[in-house]
Amino acid sequence: MPLNTLQLTLENHLEQHSASYIAVAKSIFAKPETGNNEYFASAQLTQLLTEQGFEATRNVAGHETAFYAVKASSKPGPTIAFLAEYDALIGIGHACGHNLIGTTSVAAAITLSQVLEQTGGRVVVLGTPAEEGGLAGPGGPKGNVKKRFVEAGLLDDVDVALMVHPSGKTRLTESTLANNHLYFHFYGKPSHAASAPHEGINALDALVLLYNGISVLRQQLPDGVRVHGIITNGGQAPNVIPEYASAHYYIRADSRELVESLEPKLRAIAEGVALATGARVEIDHQIGPRDFKLNPALEAVLLEEFRAAGEHVDLSPQRNKVSTDAGDISHAVPTAHPWLKIGPDDLIFHTVPFREAANSDRGYQALMIGARVLARTGLRLLIDADALQAVKADFTRQP
After folding, report:
1. Contacts of 189 (CB under 8 A, 6+ apart)
2. Could you tell me whether strands 79-84 and 55-60 are parallel, antiparallel, or unpaired per DSSP bridges?
3. DSSP string for 3-65
4. How much is the pLDDT for 391?
5. How big is the CA angle at 69 (ends 64 and 73), to the nearest 5 degrees?
6. Cα(11)–Cα(293) distance, integer angstroms
7. With the C-alpha atoms ordered 156, 158, 160, 162, is the resulting torsion angle positive or negative?
8. How far apart are CA 257 and CA 291, in angstroms?
9. Strand order in the sheet with 335-336
10. How confident is the model at residue 234, as a pLDDT?
11. Residues 21-31: b if buried by 16+ CB within 10 A, e if exposed
12. Which of the chain's ends, N or C, has fewer CB atoms near its CB within 10 Å?
């Protein structure tokens, strides 16, 4: 069947079902759920998929709200995966637009599945919670869920993975930062802060010295490295010498290797201030997402499809970098994570204006544009063996 006929099938499906996809995105926005608590969002998305003939498995990769959904044709062919994110931020809701991301990927997958019997192959949706972080149950793993999808073998049969992220500008996939987490726990000795301060060991003092020590370290760090953190516990009452204090820090850099090379510097500061104050320190380590492995051949296909959808793609040099656990997927299979305009050019992630844009007419219009672009990109990779081979060759070439 000619490409334009298949594309028309995709367009017709999206036009007929746009209202239901937008309704799901709105319902997820109205009920924001933080990482690993996305029971409503996960149920909404899997229901859409199962109603369209996908076989959905819930509670995968060690996360109750994660899912794996697949629909296969009767003919052999490539497997195209779509990455669905649907968690909200603590205190501010869907200020990163994950209500749009998850629904866009599901809409793209269902749309592409309409032509599977003509193209052959399979369509997969990976429901990946907690992109913004979050503990998976008491004592469960924190964040970086996509890494666990890779470890669980859920990408083993995937040829290409696709998603699109809302933004202030439409841009192709960009470099991201690897990111590890350090959790510092200082233990001292309580005492009355007025009558017997000399009997105590102040855990908060140790933590403040750590905070200042890391701040001083920043001027010695390589360009592009980001180290930032918060105090998560600073004591319980001002008239009691704090016996416990804690902090959570991120280390971000262009590669996992650079991130790991910087960790001993932060650990040395923590151990030094513990020695200086008499406190005891424990340090928990969490491996965060990897940097993103770019794929020029895949980006070329996406650029054509964005332009075919009437989108202006900003091709100016990248100015800022973020971190995403989609980076781990990109080191397992060729992956794209482009950006799609939902509001003004100066829109900033994790802010109230971004949250408002994620629930705007323009945001929901972008949902449908994103689903169209992703579905048409997947279609081309299903039927054009040369294009798929070019994508795989680029993946092999890239470090």
Report:
1. 199, 200, 201, 241, 243
2. unpaired
3. HHHHHHHHHHHHHHHHHHHHHHHHHHHHS---TT--HHHHHHHHHHHHHTT-EEEEEETTEEE
4. 98
5. 165
6. 31
7. negative
8. 10
9. 55-60, 63-72, 122-127, 79-84, 160-162, 335-336
10. 97
11. bbebbbebbeb
12. C
Each residue of 162-206: pLDDT tens digit?
999 999 999 999 999 999 999 999 999 999 999 999 999 999 999
25 confidence band (pLDDT: 50, 70, 90): very high
For 371-383, write each residue's pLDDT tens digit.
Answer: 999 999 999 999 9
Query: Do 46 and 58 form a contact (C-beta atoms < 8 A)?
Result: yes
**Res. 207: pLDDT tops 80:** yes
The mean pLDDT of the chain is 95
Q: Say which residues have a Cβ less than 8 Å from residue 74's Cβ, sequence separation at least 6.
A: 117
Q: How does DSSP classify residue 135? A: B
Q: Whose structure tokens read 């060759």?
A: 393
The residue type of 258 is L
Question: 42 with 130: CB under 8 angstroms?
Answer: no
Pick from 244, 263, 245, 243: nearest CA to 253: 263
2-10: long-range contacts, CB 8 A cutoff, minimum separation 24: 3/379, 3/380, 3/383, 6/115, 6/118, 6/119, 6/379, 6/383, 7/376, 7/379, 9/114, 9/115, 10/111, 10/112, 10/114, 10/115, 10/372, 10/375, 10/376, 10/379
- Asked if 78 and 386 touch (Cβ cutoff 8 Å), the reply is no
DSSP β-bridge partners for residue 303: none
Interatomic CA distance for residues 287 and 210, integer angstroms: 21
Structure-block tokens of residue 36: 């690993």
Measured in residues, the chain has a length of 399
AA letter at 128? T
pLDDT digits (tens, 9 = 90+) for 231-290: 999 999 999 999 999 999 999 999 999 999 999 999 999 999 999 999 999 999 888 899
Residue whose pair of structure tokens reads 């309580």 in the numeric block = 190
